[in-house]
Amino acid sequence: MGLLGLGTVGTGTAEILLDSAGRNPLIKQMAIHRVGVKSLDKPRAVDLPRELFTTDLESIVTDPEVDVVVELIGGIEPARSLILKAIEAKKHIVTANKAVIARHGDEIYTAANEAGVYVLLEASVGGGIPIIQPLKQSLGANKIQRVTGIINGTTNYILTRMQTEGADFDEVLADAQRLGYAEADPTADVDGFDAADKISILASLAFGGRIHYEDIEREGIRQVSVTDITYAEDLGFVVKLLAIAQRDEHTHGSLQVRVGPTFVPRDHPLASVNGVYNAILVEGEPLGQVMFFGPGAGKGATASAVVSDLLNLFSLLASDQKNPLLGCSHQHYCTITPISELETRFYVRFLCGDRPGVIGHLGTCFGHHGVSLESIVQIGFQDHLAEVVVVTHDVQEQNFRDALAEIQGESARDINIASILRVL
Amino acid sequence: MGLLGLGTVGTGTAEILLDSAGRNPLIKQMAIHRVGVKSLDKPRAVDLPRELFTTDLESIVTDPEVDVVVELIGGIEPARSLILKAIEAKKHIVTANKAVIARHGDEIYTAANEAGVYVLLEASVGGGIPIIQPLKQSLGANKIQRVTGIINGTTNYILTRMQTEGADFDEVLADAQRLGYAEADPTADVDGFDAADKISILASLAFGGRIHYEDIEREGIRQVSVTDITYAEDLGFVVKLLAIAQRDEHTHGSLQVRVGPTFVPRDHPLASVNGVYNAILVEGEPLGQVMFFGPGAGKGATASAVVSDLLNLFSLLASDQKNPLLGCSHQHYCTITPISELETRFYVRFLCGDRPGVIGHLGTCFGHHGVSLESIVQIGFQDHLAEVVVVTHDVQEQNFRDALAEIQGESARDINIASILRVL
Ligand SMILES: NC(=O)c1ccc[n+]([C@@H]2O[C@H](COP(=O)([O-])OP(=O)(O)OC[C@H]3O[C@@H](n4cnc5c(N)ncnc54)[C@H](OP(=O)(O)O)[C@@H]3O)[C@@H](O)[C@H]2O)c1
Ligand SMILES: NC(=O)c1ccc[n+]([C@@H]2O[C@H](COP(=O)([O-])OP(=O)(O)OC[C@H]3O[C@@H](n4cnc5c(N)ncnc54)[C@H](OP(=O)(O)O)[C@@H]3O)[C@@H](O)[C@H]2O)c1
């Protein structure tokens, strides 16, 4: 394959391909033949032979040895021209570039259909969250009614901090820029362009038609004030930048596609999606609601999505007949850790005769077996028995059981265990 | 295809296949050739020709006209024998039957690999939530560390009601049985067998090895008391029946697989999954955490998953080369509803000179344009201006804009709009 770009996502992708153990076995077969970058001198975090590198990206997309082109340079040009040239040369495309697809998807997909190649773009929306493939395949039985997403991590981070800290937009934006959560030029994120690119891609898949980018109603979060966020809370809402695509109930067949700051009821599944996380809620018939939640950006997460597209392509290219992604590829059994060796936290509730020194006795016995406690509290009384609740730190199940045996030993016949539950 | 079973899920599946408009175009090509049931006399909710029905299920799985067998009868026998016979006759299998896969997956997959057919089972875990295909494909780049699921709707429903109502297990179980959320014999659900079946399937996919069903540590929710749920809340937790499979950090390569009631920290993504909903959290490297949330059972949701497997099979069987599920199949553009015709709720904050009648003026103007209000409240003061917050019901954008224009008309120069946001 030919890799265009070895920045954040390109590096993450190469890291996965170079460390294939423990991942899908097909990954071992994926080799990087060429790497296109802007500067040959830049130090690279990933160990690839220098002779793979070139600044002549056109030579990659026309290289007969390359069957798949992974476009991770971003932006409109030269990404658009390179993708079109690669398609012309009958290469399959994997891209994380929502902007070029949202704005030039029409010519790209028309060219791909003519050339008989695939253009896969799982990484373009929702970072590591599988959403493109589910919309294309897993949810294909449904008539989709609506797709609602928190699909821009930067704005969700800013709104979350405005809400929790009561801080102003400008203040939080500056801090987010300092911390690397927002770009020096934040327009694409805070003015909603990025979310608009992404919802146009989701709408296109969900409703089976292309979207004119200019048709999308778009509003950013610059004008959202702390005052409104506070009133939202008083009224039972949180403010989120939502991207929504839905089939219009009145004008059959027509769609609404929009991006804007929105009051979301506190008990809505999207309301608790905070910080840089993304989530996409899909509503359809007969399915009802499903939600996909996860990291919307970042090196590893986005690369995970890029490689999932590569897996799809390689399973098609490698197999004459049987798709290795759908079959069962293992025959051995897993080794299971014996229960006595499990490590977890525990909650235990004791009912004890109310005599002095009970808590001391419990503490001592747990101590004997190396069971360290997070809390031990006498909470109340039940039927004249004192209720004592213990929460442990992570402990070995066997040690914990041994401590309980000692606690209930002959010197303490009036200590009963009312319940034991694990703690996540 | 041959359908074994036309109960809840079978009926839902047939309904999708008989109403293909607006769904993935491949669905039109799926024909039901045979239907196997227990009783020929039972009235059926779905309109299928009587001559398709038979009680001789063996004749279906050996029928040369049938290339895919959809097993939706449930239970171990005769499901197991029928699946094995179908595989022997080189039929692909789609099943929603977690029990037969968890307990006899070994012989079923071994037979399928020998026969060169697929056994697909998206519907067997998480109902309509896509989780099998994501684990097999979308997340394939990752080293999975842990899979944590709320994968039994009945127990989650019971625990949720115990928590919100402070009611006892027996009481809620009886009510759940009355309402159809729990079976007359609730053992499979409340004693954790169903969740154990499902986590063994997920563990097998996530960690690439088969699981001996007996190796799974399993505990149900019968002994969970309201007292513990209350203490959990005091300590910042909720109680959930979790199914967990994780790679052991200490004993490299060994797995922990268990089902049991567990204290879940209130801010954990799984803590807010309530009622009959299911959710599965997958943790992996380099991805981080992704969560899949949705309806874990029910006719339509489960059938959606069955048909997604059929889509995968038909795309393989139908295509010589190009996979129609991965390609782009549409060329036209979607029609977008003009913004003026959108219907949503709005939040508006006004800053007004503090004169009598302001709220009346606002109300009158909204009324003129048919904008009905959910609330209108004077909340506070800012810079000597009264702050009035309005939340509307669903209204047409154009009417709302017209009302605002009238509000700001010449008679009211001291009314400013501080912000407008949509409400979900
Ligand atoms: N970062 C994320 O978290 C994330 C998440 C989702 C999607 N994406 C998408 O992934 C794509 C890549 O993003 P990124 O963050 O990895 O970008 P990045 O870190 O800026 O890396 C861009 C790479 O492309 C190369 N490049 C840029 N312009 C070039 C040109 N004209 N000729 C040759 N090489 C050129 C750069 O070369 P040098 O190394 O020599 O400068 C660099 O290796 C974008 O479409 C982005 O929207 C990113
Ligand atoms: N229901 C859900 O929400 C759900 C969710 C996830 C997974 N599942 C799984 O889906 C499968 C089907 O569940 P379901 O709820 O649809 O079951 P169901 O409503 O009880 O339907 C079972 C169907 O199988 C037929 N059948 C049963 N035993 C038979 C036999 N020995 N010979 C011939 N036909 C037989 C029945 O025929 P008659 O109609 O003639 O009685 C009926 O049509 C199970 O594996 C279940 O675990 C169900």
UniProtKB/TrEMBL annotation, chains A, B:
Domain called ACT: residue spans: 347-424
Pfam families linked to this entry: ACT (PF01842), Homoserine_dh (PF00742), NAD_binding_3 (PF03447)
Cross-referenced InterPro entries: ACT-like_dom_sf, ACT_dom, Asp/hSer_DH_NAD-bd, HDH, HDH_cat, HDH_CS, NAD(P)-bd_dom_sf
Key words of the record: Amino-acid biosynthesis, Methionine biosynthesis, NADP, Oxidoreductase, Threonine biosynthesis
Cofactor(s) for this UniProt protein: a metal cation
Catalytic activity: L-homoserine + NADP(+) = L-aspartate 4-semialdehyde + NADPH + H(+)
Pathway recorded for this protein: Amino-acid biosynthesis; L-methionine biosynthesis via de novo pathway; L-homoserine from L-aspartate: step 3/3; Amino-acid biosynthesis; L-threonine biosynthesis; L-threonine from L-aspartate: step 3/5
Highest rank taxon of the organism: Bacteria
Enzyme Commission no: 1.1.1.3
Family: Belongs to the homoserine dehydrogenase family.
Protein name in the entry: Homoserine dehydrogenase
Biological source species: Spirulina subsalsa FACHB-351
Phylogenetic lineage: Bacteria, Bacillati, Cyanobacteriota, Cyanophyceae, Spirulinales
